[in-house]
Amino acid sequence: MTVPKEIVPVLEEILKRVNEHARRIRILEERYRSAEMRISGIEEMLLKLKDSLREEISEINVKISEIEREVFMIRNEMEKINKELMKTAKKTDLEEIENTIQLFNPFVSRFVTKEEVKRIIREVLDSEK
Fold first, then answer.
1. Residue 100's domain spans which residues?
2. pLDDT in tens, 36-49
């Protein structure tokens, strides 16, 4: 089949344009594949990140539970300590006891014997006569 000479330039132009369009379509397809691969990689990364965050949140929840348990135990211990402190003597009570002991300390206070009291009474009575 022979093509008339007048149509050859038109066919060449059509062929050139078809080739140009085919080249552009290939470039677009490559860009599309590249974008798909990037999106796929991002999706995988996001899924891994999501799993990692789930694990971290789970670990944090466990630690929070442990801390809550420890705080509860500390509160209980503090209540026990407060109850025990309520049973102990206060500083003023100890000072009062100390003063009482000081008062009856034989090294500091001088006590009178029964015989000395009798003698003093006799002396007072004798002096009044």
1. 89-129
2. 999 999 999 999 99
